[in-house]
Amino acid sequence: MYSFRKKIKQSLIRSFVKINKFKIKDYYLGKNILLVDRNLPESNLITSYFSYILNKKYNYDIYLLTSQSKNNQLNEIYNSFQINNIFNINIKKNFFDVLILFKSFLFFIYSFF
Q1: Cβ atoms 83, 35 nearer than 8 A
Q2: Which of 8, 76, 10, 6 has its CA nearest to residue 48?
Q3: How deeply is 46 buried, as exposed, middle or buried, from its count of CB atoms within 10 A (0-12, 13-18, 19+)?
Q4: What is the distance between the alpha carbons of residues 52 and 90, in angstroms, rounded to a whole number?
Q5: What does the alpha-carbon distance between residue 106 and residue 101 come to, in Å, rounded to a whole number?
Q6: List of residues 6+ apart from 106 with CB closer than 8 A
Q7: Mapping DSSP to helix (H, G, I), strand (E, B) and coil, where does residue 88 land?
Q8: DSSP 63
Q9: Do 13 and 76 form a contact (C-beta atoms < 8 A)?
Q10: Which pLDDT belongs to residue 6?
Q11: Which one of 21, 48, 107, 113 is most buried, counting C-beta atoms within 10 A?
Q12: Which residues are CB-neighbours of 70 under 8 A, at least 6 positions away?
């Protein structure tokens, strides 16, 4: 049985990136969609195609929320669609960011009062 968690071949991703003609544009109209990366190749493709359709038909801006590094091979799929608005929520990377830590602390205090 095929497991989705197996690492897919890098050559398949490279060939997809070469033949992909669907590109997402940024419109900045205030209509946004947030994609959440689940780190599954099939999920990356389906959500990228879906976001391309919404971007082309309804002029939505696409934002990606991921916890993977920029060098992850699955991010090449998103890069082939030109999804440039990427937010990384990697705890190891953002833990020592003072601004995020300060905002989190303020929000924590605000939520109790």
Answers
A1: yes
A2: 76
A3: exposed
A4: 25
A5: 9
A6: none
A7: strand
A8: E
A9: yes
A10: 58
A11: 48
A12: 86, 88
Query: Hey, is 62 helix, strand or coil?
Result: strand
Closest CA to 22 of 64, 84, 80, 86: 80
Helix or strand run (H / E) with residue 32:
strand 32-36
CB contact at 8 A, 51 and 36: no
Q: Tens-digit pLDDT profile for the chain (113 aa)?
A: 445 555 667 788 788 889 999 999 999 998 999 999 888 888 888 899 999 999 999 999 999 999 887 788 888 889 999 998 988 887 777 667 778 778 888 888 888 77
- Alpha helix (H) ranges present in the chain? 10-19, 41-58, 75-80, 91-94, 98-112
> Is the Cβ–Cβ distance between 83 and 48 less than 8 Å?
yes
Residue 84: which of 8, 41, 24, 43 has the closest Cα? 24
51: amino acid identity, one letter: S
